[in-house]
Amino acid sequence: MTTEIAEPASKVELPSHLSGDAGEIPSFECTIRIARFVPEQDEEPHWEDYQVTMYGTDRVLDALHKIKWEIDGSLSFRRSCAHGICGSDAMRINGRNRLACKTLLKDLDTSKPITVEPIKGLPVEKDLIVDMEPFFQSYREIMPFLITTGNEPTRERLQSQEDRARFDDTTKCILCAACTSSCPVFWTDGQYFGPAAIVNAHRFIFDSRDEGGDLRLEILNDKEGVWRCRTTFNCSEACPRGIEVTKAIAEVKQALFTRAF
Amino acid sequence: MKIHQYDVVIVGAGGAGMRAAIEAGQRTRTAVLTKLYPTRSHTGAAQGGMCAALANVEEDNWEWHTFDTIKGGDYLVDQDAAEVMAKEAIDAVLDLEKMGLPFNRTPEGKIDQRRFGGHTRDHGKAPVRRACYAADRTGHMILQTLYQNCVKHGVEFYNEFYVLDLILTEVDGRRRVAGVVAYELATGELHIFQSKSVVFATGGVGKVFKTTSNAHTLTGDGMAVAYRRGIPLEDMEFFQFHPTGLAGLGILLSEAARGEGGILRNADGERFMERYAPTIKDLAPRDIVARSMANEVREGRGAGPNKDYVLLDLTHLEPEHIDAKLPDITEFARTYLGVEPYTEPVPVFPTAHYAMGGIPTNVDSEVLADNDTVIPGLFAAGEVACVSVHGSNRLGTNSLLDINVFGKRAGKAAAAYAAGADYVELPEAPETEIAATLESLRTSDGSENIAAIRKDLQDIMDANVQVFRTEQTLREALDVIATLRERYANVGIHDRGKRFNLDLLEAVELGFLLELAEVITVSALHRKESRGGHFREDYEKRDDENFMHHTMAYLDPESEAEGVRGVRLDTKPVVVTRYQPMERKY
Ligand SMILES: Cc1cc2nc3c(=O)[nH]c(=O)nc-3n(C[C@H](O)[C@H](O)[C@H](O)COP(=O)(O)OP(=O)(O)OC[C@H]3O[C@@H](n4cnc5c(N)ncnc54)[C@H](O)[C@@H]3O)c2cc1C
Ligand code: SF4
Ligand code: FES
């Protein structure tokens, strides 16, 4: 595609908030209500409220940092990239699974306390930190790697653009667990593989280069596999990468019907 | 105290660490220690691509790639290393494809390639399509693919283990690696990993600056740990500042923003690059654009309430064009600043992006104790290391390449070394020193706040050691760092617990940042010239006569460098094979 781009103007009028005449960045007060749990001293998690002054486009992660850095350094949560790419900070914010670094406070109702809890269905280790091992265990069980037979080619394997596009959506997964920990089936049955593992199986089952699809389908045909999915769509709504999780699960189910093994 | 024994211990599970683990893990008993879950590593944030002269879409060869790398690095690149990297780039990309990486494809089904700044055909004649990519998430796909292959090969990970010390033992008058000391986040326990080889792959140190594209966790741990054990750090003054970070946040908007027609404006709505680079304007190289932006702000033409940023204007482009070519930018601008790029300009400012310097290694990824003595058993690869393939300025897409080429080399070399070596005896209680530091931090009643000190450090580094540097700004920065180090001695933390005590670890990481900020600034003072990412307003020209060398900084209580006690500076010749320095003109 070549687009002709008209030469942009050397100078334009800017609105006053950009030209720098419009005063300060708006600030607002909010209450963050956090489910605190310190294993060395608490039997049960309890709510704790924190009052903070936040600015403009601050995110929930900024509020958590402000609390940790200025009010109570013992508040514990995971985070790294701070822009929705590493998958560290999935948590339940106002009852919905989201990434704290991708949730703007101004998009929430700040007239009421904003509740922040750990994601559900995984053992809580401390405050907002859960044990991710069971989640990664399910992921590892679906054999999340390219399986091929025969000799390695000397150059790259060929793949058409259509074949490449077939599984593009599920390659976006950052293993944040927002989907799996929003699934009511997973909450009641921790053995269920959960949406994230199925998404990652999908990524390989529909990759034209892969020859391990049948192995993975067999694994997912298990009683804790895809058939437990009740299509509640929580997972698709929770996914911060916009992956159509429910659709991916449906496609895996479909493959189980049509593939003989 | 738990003591573990492995042939090879790899520290870090980003691209470099996991690429090393795939090699070492198939050859010998290997453990990977990482402070983050592997898939959380910042390699996942890279968008643009990884270059290799595959010549899939047009004529290209590794020799042209070598030249571009050397020129891009303003001739401070070790040319033997650049040759190795450009040559092995082709296999590095093909390895990843065979491991399953979903590269974008050409109509014939081959790996597709696109243009990226500084990559040219035939020594600068025209841009060449050399960057292999997977949509706008190449780094994400590299990180996932490498992790998947670690799962496949059953690599053993110790997740959320922070390596805080390196154990070196003198054997027959020579320092050798004995292992590392690691802190387990979940329990607060220290572990000793005795090993024949250690590979450092802990990534960069962007968090010395306030505005950075780097993750919160990129605190230069590997560099600081090595430095404290007497290993030099090479070329630390060279830091790359990327022009288009989201203002206030530093989140990177890729170079494509300007390549696809975006232009920069100041608060007056003026397209200021017309003044600084009348012919190529907004398409000037990263360092020139970054300095022009900073100058606009410095001279009072910055936009916004605090007049501290400029504007990236895409509003003259068709929305469909923006959607097709710049999806990440639109998403980041909308999500994080609430700005709609179709109709409003996006606030941007230069962001600290990449550390060209680091732990010196040779092309086999072996760490050097000085200009040429290898430390047996110690290896480093990735952003933590300095081979040096990037010289004073890294070309886009050369780092994802670096981590794969030298990660692989490090893994192989570490396994080979372990196969022929014995364990070195551990000294008596090697954890003593770090245990004492941790305990005093954990129980301290100090009145200083970690976040406050860190903020002051990042503020002064952004103000004085960023794209403009002078003798005076650097001296001022050193004075501030010295006071911050005094304050740090009196730091107090809230969390007294053992489990998941991230408060404690932030304090430790702050210690690393302070140390490295000093090394960066002292090295920058030493270099009285401008080259690549390092720009001295008081010495605006490159000076090959006096500064065509690498800077080597050592921790040394007996010495003084540039008026700073405890640092010793030395120089190391640049390896020149076939390209004599020329003016870097584009
Ligand atoms: C936003 C962004 C975009 C980029 N885009 C590109 C691009 O398009 N092309 C390109 O070539 N380059 C790009 N780069 C640069 C490139 O991505 C990085 O330089 C590279 O990924 C670094 O990889 P690494 O393996 O060295 O480190 P990382 O991926 O940062 O990994 C570091 C690892 O070390 C571990 N670690 C750190 N400290 C400790 C400790 N004390 N104990 C134990 N473990 C520890 C961490 O857990 C982590 O696993 C980009 C960088 C950024 C920030
Ligand atoms: S599918 Fe989406 S929600 Fe689920 S783990 Fe992957 S990125 Fe997270
Ligand atoms: S901190 Fe990385 S996804 Fe939120």
UniProtKB/TrEMBL annotation, chain A:
<comment type="similarity">
    <text>Belongs to the succinate dehydrogenase/fumarate reductase iron-sulfur protein family.</text>
</comment>
<dbReference type="GO" id="GO:0006099">
    <property type="term" value="P:tricarboxylic acid cycle"/>
</dbReference>
<dbReference type="InterPro" id="IPR050573">
    <property type="entry name" value="SDH/FRD_Iron-Sulfur"/>
</dbReference>
<feature type="region of interest" description="Disordered">
    <location>
        <begin position="1"/>
        <end position="20"/>
    </location>
</feature>
<dbReference type="InterPro" id="IPR017900">
    <property type="entry name" value="4Fe4S_Fe_S_CS"/>
</dbReference>
<keyword id="KW-0408">Iron</keyword>
<dbReference type="InterPro" id="IPR036010">
    <property type="entry name" value="2Fe-2S_ferredoxin-like_sf"/>
</dbReference>
<keyword id="KW-0003">3Fe-4S</keyword>
<dbReference type="InterPro" id="IPR004489">
    <property type="entry name" value="Succ_DH/fum_Rdtase_Fe-S"/>
</dbReference>
<keyword id="KW-0816">Tricarboxylic acid cycle</keyword>
<keyword id="KW-0004">4Fe-4S</keyword>
<dbReference type="InterPro" id="IPR017896">
    <property type="entry name" value="4Fe4S_Fe-S-bd"/>
</dbReference>
<dbReference type="InterPro" id="IPR012675">
    <property type="entry name" value="Beta-grasp_dom_sf"/>
</dbReference>
<dbReference type="GO" id="GO:0051539">
    <property type="term" value="F:4 iron, 4 sulfur cluster binding"/>
</dbReference>
<keyword id="KW-0001">2Fe-2S</keyword>
<dbReference type="GO" id="GO:0051537">
    <property type="term" value="F:2 iron, 2 sulfur cluster binding"/>
</dbReference>
<protein>
    <recommendedName>
        <fullName>succinate dehydrogenase</fullName>
        <ecNumber>1.3.5.1</ecNumber>
    </recommendedName>
</protein>
<keyword id="KW-0479">Metal-binding</keyword>
<dbReference type="GO" id="GO:0009055">
    <property type="term" value="F:electron transfer activity"/>
</dbReference>
<dbReference type="Pfam" id="PF13183">
    <property type="entry name" value="Fer4_8"/>
</dbReference>
<dbReference type="GO" id="GO:0022904">
    <property type="term" value="P:respiratory electron transport chain"/>
</dbReference>
<keyword id="KW-0411">Iron-sulfur</keyword>
UniProtKB/TrEMBL annotation, chain B:
<dbReference type="InterPro" id="IPR036188">
    <property type="entry name" value="FAD/NAD-bd_sf"/>
</dbReference>
<dbReference type="InterPro" id="IPR003953">
    <property type="entry name" value="FAD-dep_OxRdtase_2_FAD-bd"/>
</dbReference>
<comment type="pathway">
    <text>Carbohydrate metabolism; tricarboxylic acid cycle; fumarate from succinate (bacterial route): step 1/1.</text>
</comment>
<dbReference type="InterPro" id="IPR015939">
    <property type="entry name" value="Fum_Rdtase/Succ_DH_flav-like_C"/>
</dbReference>
<dbReference type="GO" id="GO:0033765">
    <property type="term" value="F:steroid dehydrogenase activity, acting on the CH-CH group of donors"/>
</dbReference>
<feature type="domain" description="Fumarate reductase/succinate dehydrogenase flavoprotein-like C-terminal">
    <location>
        <begin position="454"/>
        <end position="586"/>
    </location>
</feature>
<dbReference type="InterPro" id="IPR037099">
    <property type="entry name" value="Fum_R/Succ_DH_flav-like_C_sf"/>
</dbReference>
<keyword id="KW-0285">Flavoprotein</keyword>
<dbReference type="Pfam" id="PF02910">
    <property type="entry name" value="Succ_DH_flav_C"/>
</dbReference>
<dbReference type="GO" id="GO:0050660">
    <property type="term" value="F:flavin adenine dinucleotide binding"/>
</dbReference>
<protein>
    <recommendedName>
        <fullName>Succinate dehydrogenase flavoprotein subunit</fullName>
        <ecNumber>1.3.5.1</ecNumber>
    </recommendedName>
</protein>
<feature type="binding site">
    <location>
        <position position="254"/>
    </location>
    <ligand>
        <name>substrate</name>
    </ligand>
</feature>
<keyword id="KW-0274">FAD</keyword>
<feature type="modified residue" description="Tele-8alpha-FAD histidine">
    <location>
        <position position="42"/>
    </location>
</feature>
<dbReference type="GO" id="GO:0009055">
    <property type="term" value="F:electron transfer activity"/>
</dbReference>
<dbReference type="InterPro" id="IPR014006">
    <property type="entry name" value="Succ_Dhase_FrdA_Gneg"/>
</dbReference>
<keyword id="KW-0560">Oxidoreductase</keyword>
<feature type="binding site">
    <location>
        <begin position="34"/>
        <end position="49"/>
    </location>
    <ligand>
        <name>FAD</name>
    </ligand>
</feature>
<feature type="active site" description="Proton acceptor">
    <location>
        <position position="286"/>
    </location>
</feature>
<dbReference type="InterPro" id="IPR003952">
    <property type="entry name" value="FRD_SDH_FAD_BS"/>
</dbReference>
<dbReference type="GO" id="GO:0009061">
    <property type="term" value="P:anaerobic respiration"/>
</dbReference>
<feature type="binding site">
    <location>
        <position position="353"/>
    </location>
    <ligand>
        <name>substrate</name>
    </ligand>
</feature>
